[in-house]
Amino acid sequence: MNLTRLVYYSQRNPSLSLNMEELLEVCKRNNAAMNVTGILHYNGNYFLQVLEGGRAEVSAIYHRIAADPRHVNIILMSASDVRERIFPTWSMGLHEGMGEETKQIFLRYFPSNNVNPEAVSVDSLLDFLQDVSTELS
Ligand SMILES: Cc1cc2nc3c(=O)[nH]c(=O)nc-3n(C[C@H](O)[C@H](O)[C@H](O)COP(=O)(O)O)c2cc1C
Predict the structure, then answer these.
(1) pTM
(2) Per CATH, the architecture of 3-97 is what?
(3) Fewest beta carbons within 10 Å, which of 5, 59, 84, 89?
């Protein structure tokens, strides 16, 4: 199996309703069935997501996600073969919010706590997501 890691970010579509609990259930169900794992960070505006798994599976899920009208301005940052998963634990781990602790973590990697993924590198985003993932159970 080719193991692939895909990273993208997007913005919530403010005109459509979004139920994160429901969304997470669907992510978990579909991803588990395809042996895909990852993490989704949502700060109320931006989504940052990492998908890890077989190349065909990650690709299929990403195409579905990219067609979802609940988010817009979807920017694919990277999709590449990797030796191992960074996020093997969750079929989709959700980290929500930008509280004080999360802001401090953000400042480890980025010059200001202005959350602007357009100004960040994929490596810094992965480091940030890895650090906030320690808060997930
Ligand atoms: C920000 C965001 C992240 C999503 N992540 C996933 C995901 O990891 N896996 C998944 O199957 N669907 C994900 N979805 C939902 C898909 O866009 C789509 O609604 C879903 O896969 C349809 O599944 P269903 O046909 O089983 O209802 C995501 C949607 C959004 C808006």
Answers:
(1) 0.95
(2) 2-Layer Sandwich (3.30)
(3) 84
